[in-house]
Write a structure and sequence with these properties.
- This protein has a single domain, classed as YVTN repeat-like/Quinoprotein amine dehydrogenase (Methylamine Dehydrogenase, Chain H), CATH 2.130.10.
- The protein has 1 helix and 32 strands.
- It has one helix at about 1-25, and strands at about 55-65, 70-75, 75-85, 85-95, 100-105, 130, 135, 145, 155, 175, 180-185, 190-195, 200-205, 215-220, 225-230, 235-240, 245-250, 260-265, 265-270, 275-285, 290-295, 310, 315-320, 325-330, 335-340, 345-350, 355-360, 365-370, 375-380, 395, 400, 405-410.
- The strands form 8 sheets. It has a 4-stranded antiparallel sheet, with no helix packed on it. A 4-stranded antiparallel sheet has the order 2-3-4-5, with no helix packed on it. A 4-stranded antiparallel sheet has the order 6-7-8-9, with no helix packed on it.
- The chain is globular and about 55 Å long.
- The protein starts with a helix and ends with a strand.
């Protein structure tokens, strides 16, 4: 009897050890849209290794096509939105091995503006996954809904009559029964809510053309609102009706901004090339809305890089000084530290606990430690052989990296 009990205990102990050993790798975080579940660049499923390995392990690498969309991870599938010749393509891949599960495409020819040749023909917008559907915004403004299980096209809205001058880069946001994107060109654009099931227009605001930054859903003064940069403004519209709530003029020397607004406590953070960084508060009095600045700094700025917030500190890569990392106190606007200049032209930044991941456009994945006092790099890994403009996707010990034309899975072992 005692021997049987001892054997049973040994089996239970072995099983427990196995579960503990595999859990950090097996349990991941879905990454269903631009910058993650909350569109804030925060990774919740990462466990920092006791010691960082000398190299990351390349598990697989597959040609998927051109573009800078973030890999979308849901369960055991990775969804990639790319361009292959004159088609925009949605792929579903097995996350473990990289095998193609399904491929869906549509014809999407367009003429590139010479100024965009360096960055390629896109697409640059990240798909959004919600309730079994995938929503995309193509380079010329085509809006499409796919069935995520089969790849079947559910509905599609064609290229608008006036295309954006430098085409599109913003990523859709889903709010209940609506998927919201900004379509059209400078003088004929509309921030539009499409029905997720049918593609019918639920509301539209046509006060300005689209920018490259992606919209956010904020609750301010008790009202749910879509906040986004446009060609010439930072605007807020009612999430329910699309009615304009408030507007702040905002332009950059780069024609339009590529930033995603940030909500920190009760302040909105706005940034754009050569505009520094500003925190402002939104107030409502009856039917009137207004905004007032809390602080502003010109010491650092953001252009094509979106920052992340950890314990009240904004970590970013300023385009000033040819690319300089910084830590900024969001409570008072104080720049706490800056790195040496000439770090990178662009970086895709995520946070995981006290760790900051920065995938630079030169294919270096830089690992930083959260710090109020200094630029504190831990490790640097080379993760591609061509430019990496897409945001990485991190879940468990997995790092999915999209370069110019390939998708790779790296693991931190």
């Amino acid at each position: 009897m005692l021997q049987n009990r001892w054997q049973y205990c040994r089996i239970c102990l072995v099983a427990l050890v196995v579960v503990l050993a595999v859990t950090p790798e097996a349990v991941g975080q879905d990454w269903p849209q631009w910058r993650g579940p909350n569109r804030d660049g925060v990774v919740t499923s990462f466990n920092e290794p006791a010691s960082w390995p000398a190299h990351l392990t390349n598990r697989w690498n597959i040609e998927v096509g051109l573009g800078y969309a973030t890999p979308v991870l849901v369960g055991d599938r990775v969804y990639m939105y790319t361009r292959q010749q004159n088609e925009e393509v949605m792929l579903a891949l097995d996350a473990d091995g990289g095998d193609v599960i399904w491929r869906s495409s549509y014809s999407a020819p367009f003429e590139m503006v010479r100024a965009t040749f360096r960055h390629g023909p896109g697409p640059k917008s990240t798909p959004t996954f919600a309730d079994g559907r995938l929503f995309t915004l193509g380079m010329s403004g085509i809006v499409t809904a796919f069935d995520a299980e089969s790849g079947r096209r559910l509905w599609q809205r064609p290229t608008p009559p006036v295309e954006p001058l430098y085409h599109t880069a913003m990523s859709p946001i889903v709010d209940g029964d609506s998927v919201i994107v900004h379509v059209g060109g400078h003088n004929d654009g509309a921030l539009t809510a499409f029905d997720v099931v049918t593609g019918a227009i639920r509301w539209r605001w046509d006060g300005d053309g689209p920018a490259y930054g992606s919209p956010m859903l904020f609750k301010l003064e008790g009202t749910r609102q879509i906040v986004t940069f446009t060609q010439e403004n930072l605007v807020s519209v009612s999430a329910a009706t699309g009615a304009l709530l408030w507007l702040r003029p905002f332009t950059t020397p780069s024609t339009t901004t590529s930033q995603t607004p940030i909500l920190y406590n009760h302040t909105v953070i706005q940034a754009g090339r050569e505009n520094g960084i500003t925190a402002f508060r939104v107030r409502r009095s009856g039917d009137e809305w207004n905004t007032s600045d809390v602080w502003h700094t010109d010491r650092v700025s953001l252009h094509m890089t979106n920052g992340v917030v950890v314990d009240g500190i904004l970590y970013g890569l300023s385009h000033l000084n040819s690319g300089q990392y910084f830590g900024l106190d969001l409570d008072n606007g104080e720049v706490l530290w800056t790195s040496a200049p000439r770090q990178a032209e662009n970086a895709s930044i995520l946070s995981a606990g006290n760790i900051i991941f920065s995938l630079q456009d030169d294919a270096d994945l830089l690992i930083l430690r959260h710090s109020r006092i200094e630029f504190d790099p831990i490790k640097r890994y080379k993760v591609a052989t061509s430019s990496t403009w897409a945001q990485p996707t991190i879940a468990g010990n997995q790092v999915f990296v999209k370069d110019v034309s390939t998708l790779a899975l790296w693991t931190i072992d």
